[in-house]
Design brief:
heterodimer; A: 430 residues; D-Maltodextrin-Binding Protein, domain 2; 2 domains; B: mainly alpha; MetI-like fold; two-stranded antiparallel sheet; 13 helices; 74% helix
Chain lengths: 430, 304
């Protein structure tokens, strides 16, 4: 009898211990008293991660009651991961977004309306146009990290080796562009190309804006015409046929590895590559070459297609338990010269005018080249970009798929153009 | 009388206490099963009839999601890709497994070592690291092309070409022949050697022995492996996700069903539609398994 009761008691203890352990495993966060813990996520390479960690350290030194843990991934993986975290209700407190993503997440109620934390997070010194990229239906969902422009990166060393002069970017046309790309490929060693395949959603915006279109209308419909897309793809197929761009399978392979170090430009294997201006530093470092920024071809022809845009946008999770602390952190990121001096131009030219002034003397040649370029194109760019509606973040993937179909000659440019409009309409129709 | 009743109460009381203890021990698993498996399965059945974007509550839509599948051309493409993948990679994998099992069954020295070595890929191949390795091996500057270059052939980037990308996944799946091989080996051991002795006395050659003794007696094992590997292949995800960089590309050529399901659910927040896709996959697998069982009567031989 006694033996049995001891055994029963032991059993009960064992079972409750198991249960307790599993409960304990779930609930190690939270609690009173200790510092508030924030999670902050961004995309980018290792250099950016190191710089960002320094900013976090500086912030924590000023705010010992707040602890920030950062996490980063490359661009493709970042948004997959974020979607999963948002779905699980476990998204970071401060989330870096860009392009059409703030609207995508904001419209779905995942982002905090920053009006609720206006005491902690000031936006009065921030460039109005850039601030507009985080404002949808009169709600401010995000603060721009900096200003950026989609432009052409060139490698003068590749041009010189091929004996091709750099173009005059104030007058050149798309025909000049194609000819130069062809020439470079023809006169360069095997494996070096005139230009990396230029098709991308940003490129579609730029090219069609030169014709007064753009990807989307302000009321959230498809603006780009089939005709424009057909002409674009006819040109890029011509580039591929002439060897100006790499074979299709190289292009599709490059799409899977978006880090600047892995691009053709980053490896010194391309004369030209369209990219965001804030990538200049990373690309220069990766290639070891004095890369430069140029205006896109065709800017002087009809209408300018280039634009200035918030390069990235800091947003706050609507479900965060610490909105005030999160806002204090974002305020530090965008409004403090201290953070500005660490981040410099890595997330675009600082959108806060005071930060920019204090940062300029600290810029290295790479960064001041970027700042100079932005300054140069500012009077020449077109109107602000129309940000895509909810569902438009699919456009990037739709374009990637159809671009592969076109480059592998499985679809004609005209058929792919029809498909593109149809699929984007379906994606933003819901 | 009273004595007997007494002992029965004691015994039933004991049994009750023992079963209570048993349930106590089982509780963590029962709770896990209900909360993490059965609950979500039932929830996804409900969600498959709704429009659910994760952030706002689901809205009832009846059969809309299922109707949408009929017109979804990318779904049809992904079904085609998945069927190609399953119907090529599973037979290839089983043939490899059986071939190697036959070889190893001839009494090779160090059998446990070979068995483990060949089994290893089955443990590794589902992992992200092997998929990344695969990307490198079949990339434009990968091992395969370096070997081809030695014999003067210029290869393409196999993982990035729509004609070959799925092929690299088939090879990856076939490489995991270890698990069915181990089961085949066990099956081969079960076949009494007297059958072979009798057959050779009657003058039957190796080929005829293979088709008339080995295969017929092995059919239950073949059947078992076929069902298991087929279900596994339909659910393949990691390899295609990593090799294609999450896109199912190039040009949707590696868009396995589960990848498309993931893309709808987590890329476009269409959880309702993704749930409907999941249930459709379940039905497809159930139907094909059922068909397999029906045909099994004609070719599977259970001895005696």
């Amino acid at each position: 009898m006694r033996v049995r009761s001891i055994r029963t008691r032991l059993t009960t203890v064992a079972v409750s211990a198991t249960l307790l352990l599993s409960v304990a495993a779930c609930g190690d966060s939270g609690g009173d008293g200790g510092p508030v813990e924030l999670r902050f996520s961004w995309w980018g390479n290792n250099d950016r991660a190191q710089a960002t960690q320094k900013v976090i350290d500086a912030f924590q030194a000023q705010h010992p009651d707040i602890k920030v843990s950062g996490s980063s991934a490359d661009f493709n993986a970042y948004f997959d991961k974020l979607a999963t975290e948002v779905a699980a209700g476990d998204a970071p407190d401060v989330i870096t977004l860009g392009g059409a993503y703030p609207r995508e997440y904001g419209d779905r109620g995942a982002l905090l309306d920053l009006a609720r934390v206006r005491n902690e997070l000031k936006t009065d010194k921030i460039d109005a146009a850039a601030l507009g990229n985080g404002n949808f239906e009169n709600k401010q969902y995000g603060v721009p990290t900096g200003v950026n422009t989609f432009a052409l990166v060139v490698n003068p060393a590749v041009f010189a080796k091929a004996g091709v002069p750099l173009p005059d970017d104030s007058t050149w046309t798309w025909d000049d562009f194609a000819r130069i790309a062809r020439d470079i490929s023809a006169k360069s060693p095997k494996g070096t190309y005139g230009v990396a395949d230029p098709s991308s959603a940003d490129m579609f915006d730029l090219y069609s804006r030169q014709r007064g279109e753009g990807l989307y209308t302000p009321d959230g419909k498809v603006a780009i015409s089939r005709n424009t897309i057909t002409e674009w793809w006819t040109m890029t197929v011509g580039l591929r046929n002439s060897g100006a761009t790499p074979p299709a399978s190289v292009t599709t392979e490059l799409e899977g590895q978006p880090a600047p170090e892995q691009t053709l430009m980053g490896r010194g294997l391309a004369g030209m590559q369209f990219d965001w201006s804030n990538q200049l530093g990373a690309l220069r470092k990766a290639s070891g070459q004095p890369l430069e920024l140029l205006r896109a071809p065709g800017e002087s022809g009809q209408k300018p297609g280039m634009w200035l845009q918030a390069s990235q946008i800091y947003t706050i999770n609507a479900r965060t338990e610490h909105p005030k602390e999160a806002a204090t952190f974002v305020d530090f990121l965008v409004n403090s010269p201290e953070a500005g001096k660490i981040i410099l131009t890595d997330r675009g030219i600082p959108a806060n005018s005071e930060v920019l002034t204090s940062v300029v003397p600290a810029l290295n040649p790479d960064q001041s080249a970027q700042a100079t370029f932005i300054e140069k194109v500012t009077p020449q760019v077109g109107p602000p970009l129309v940000i895509g509606p909810t569902g438009s973040t699919d456009t990037r993937l739709i374009l990637q798929r159809l671009n592969a179909e076109v480059l592998f000659d499985r679809k004609s440019p005209a058929d792919a153009a029809d498909e593109f409009v149809k699929q984007v309409e379906a994606a933003i129709g819901k | 009388m009273s004595d007997r009743t007494g002992s029965r109460t004691i015994r039933s009381g004991l049994r009750r206490r023992e079963s209570r203890v048993a349930y106590g021990f089982l509780a963590p698993w029962i709770v896990g099963m209900v909360v993490f498996t059965i609950g979500p399965i039932l929830a996804s059945l409900y969600l498959s009839f709704t429009d659910y974007t994760l952030l706002s509550p689901p809205e009832w839509r009846g059969l809309e999601n299922y109707q949408r599948m009929l017109a979804d051309s990318r779904l049809h493409k992904s079904l085609l890709v998945t069927f190609q993948y399953v119907f090529v990679s599973v037979p290839v994998q089983l043939a490899l497994a059986l071939g190697l099992a036959m070889l190893l069954n001839r009494g090779v020295r160090g059998l446990p070592i070979y068995r483990s070595v060949y089994y290893l890929p089955s443990l590794l191949a589902g992992s992200v690291s092997i998929a990344i390795l695969w990307r490198q091996i079949f990339g434009s500057e990968g091992l395969v092309n370096q070997l081809l270059a030695k014999v003067g052939v210029e290869g393409v980037s196999w993982v990035s070409h729509p004609d070959f990308a799925l092929g690299t996944l088939v090879v990856l799946n076939a490489w995991t022949f270890g698990a069915p091989m181990v089961i085949f080996l066990a099956g081969l051991r079960q076949i009494p050697s007297m059958y072979y002795e009798a057959a050779s006395v009657d003058g039957a050659g190796a080929v005829s022995q293979f088709f008339r003794i080995t295969i017929p007696l092995l059919t239950p094992i073949i059947f078992f492996n076929l069902i298991l590997q087929m279900i596994g292949a339909f659910q393949s995800f990691t390899q295609a996700f990593v090799v294609s960089g999450g896109s199912g590309g190039p040009a949707d050529s590696t868009l396995l069903y589960t990848l498309y399901l993931y893309e709808r659910g987590f890329g476009s927040f269409e959880m309702g539609y993704a749930s409907a896709l999941a249930w459709t996959l379940l039905v497809i697998i159930a139907v094909l398994t059922g068909v397999n069982f029906l045909f099994a009567k004609r070719w599977v031989f259970y001895g005696d």
